[in-house]
Protein backbone atom coordinates (compact mmCIF):
# COMPACT_ATOMS: atom_id res chain seq x y z
CA UNK A 1 0.00 0.00 0.00
CA UNK A 2 2.86 2.40 0.78
CA UNK A 3 4.47 1.77 -2.63
CA UNK A 4 1.24 2.67 -4.39
CA UNK A 5 1.14 5.96 -2.47
CA UNK A 6 4.76 6.63 -3.36
CA UNK A 7 4.27 6.07 -7.08
CA UNK A 8 0.99 7.95 -7.25
CA UNK A 9 1.70 11.04 -5.15
CA UNK A 10 5.33 11.37 -4.11
CA UNK A 11 7.17 10.35 -7.28
CA UNK A 12 5.61 12.98 -9.62
CA UNK A 13 6.27 15.70 -7.04
CA UNK A 14 9.88 14.57 -6.69
CA UNK A 15 10.31 14.55 -10.47
CA UNK A 16 8.91 18.07 -10.68
CA UNK A 17 11.34 19.33 -8.03
CA UNK A 18 14.27 17.60 -9.76
CA UNK A 19 13.33 19.13 -13.12
CA UNK A 20 13.08 22.60 -11.61
CA UNK A 21 16.43 22.21 -9.86
CA UNK A 22 18.07 21.14 -13.11
CA UNK A 23 16.63 24.19 -14.92
CA UNK A 24 17.97 26.50 -12.21
CA UNK A 25 21.34 24.73 -12.33
CA UNK A 26 21.59 25.02 -16.11
CA UNK A 27 20.63 28.68 -15.99
CA UNK A 28 23.32 29.36 -13.42
CA UNK A 29 25.90 27.41 -15.42
CA UNK A 30 24.94 29.26 -18.60
CA UNK A 31 25.35 32.62 -16.90
CA UNK A 32 28.81 31.67 -15.66
CA UNK A 33 29.84 30.15 -19.00
CA UNK A 34 28.60 33.08 -21.06
CA UNK A 35 30.57 35.51 -18.89
CA UNK A 36 33.68 33.48 -19.73
CA UNK A 37 32.89 33.73 -23.47
CA UNK A 38 31.23 30.38 -24.25
CA UNK A 39 28.79 30.51 -27.15
CA UNK A 40 25.10 29.81 -26.59
CA UNK A 41 25.10 27.13 -29.29
CA UNK A 42 28.07 25.31 -27.81
CA UNK A 43 26.51 25.38 -24.34
CA UNK A 44 23.25 23.99 -25.75
CA UNK A 45 25.16 21.24 -27.54
CA UNK A 46 27.05 20.27 -24.38
CA UNK A 47 23.97 20.32 -22.15
CA UNK A 48 21.98 18.21 -24.63
CA UNK A 49 24.84 15.73 -24.88
CA UNK A 50 25.13 15.41 -21.12
CA UNK A 51 21.35 14.96 -20.84
CA UNK A 52 21.48 12.24 -23.51
CA UNK A 53 24.26 10.41 -21.70
CA UNK A 54 22.35 10.70 -18.44
CA UNK A 55 19.05 9.44 -19.82
CA UNK A 56 20.39 6.71 -22.10
CA UNK A 57 21.00 4.15 -19.31
CA UNK A 58 17.38 4.54 -18.20
CA UNK A 59 16.35 3.00 -21.51
CA UNK A 60 18.01 -0.25 -20.51
CA UNK A 61 17.06 -0.12 -16.83
CA UNK A 62 13.32 0.46 -17.45
CA UNK A 63 12.47 -1.22 -20.77
CA UNK A 64 9.10 -0.42 -22.28
CA UNK A 65 6.70 -3.31 -22.76
CA UNK A 66 3.81 -1.41 -24.35
CA UNK A 67 3.25 -1.18 -28.07
CA UNK A 68 3.62 2.12 -29.85
CA UNK A 69 0.45 3.59 -31.35
CA UNK A 70 0.01 3.29 -35.08
CA UNK A 71 1.08 6.34 -37.05
CA UNK A 72 -2.23 7.19 -38.67
CA UNK A 73 -3.21 10.70 -39.69
CA UNK A 74 -5.07 11.75 -36.51
CA UNK A 75 -2.10 10.70 -34.38
CA UNK A 76 0.36 12.60 -36.58
CA UNK A 77 -1.96 15.62 -36.60
CA UNK A 78 -2.00 15.65 -32.80
CA UNK A 79 1.79 15.55 -32.67
CA UNK A 80 1.97 18.38 -35.20
CA UNK A 81 -0.53 20.44 -33.21
CA UNK A 82 1.40 19.89 -29.97
CA UNK A 83 4.65 20.88 -31.69
CA UNK A 84 3.03 23.97 -33.15
CA UNK A 85 1.62 25.09 -29.81
CA UNK A 86 4.71 24.14 -27.85
Brief characterization of the structure:
The chain is an all-alpha fold and 86 residues long.
Give the SSE layout.
Elements (H helix, E strand, L loop, with lengths): L1 H34 L4 H22 L11 H13 L1
Organism: Turnera subulata
Protein name: WAT1-related protein
Keywords: Membrane, Transmembrane, Transmembrane helix
Q: Kindly provide the radius of gyration, computed on alpha-carbon positions and rounded to a whole number of angstroms.
A: 18 Å
| Coarse shape | extended
Helix content: over 70%
Structural class: mainly alpha
Which strand-content bin applies to the residues?
Answer: under 5%
Count every helix, treating DSSP H or I runs of 4 or more residues as helices: 3
Count the strands?
0
Low-confidence stretches: none
Order of helices and strands: HHH
Give the N-to-C terminal Cα separation: 37 Å
On the 0 to 100 scale, the average pLDDT is 85
Major pleated sheet? none
Protein name: WAT1-related protein
Keywords: Membrane, Transmembrane, Transmembrane helix
Describe, in plain words, how this protein is organized in 3D.
The chain has 86 residues and is mostly helical. It has a domain at 2-61. The protein has 3 helices and no strands. The protein has helices spanning 2-35, 40-61, 73-85. It is extended and about 45 Å long. The chain starts with a helix and ends with a helix.
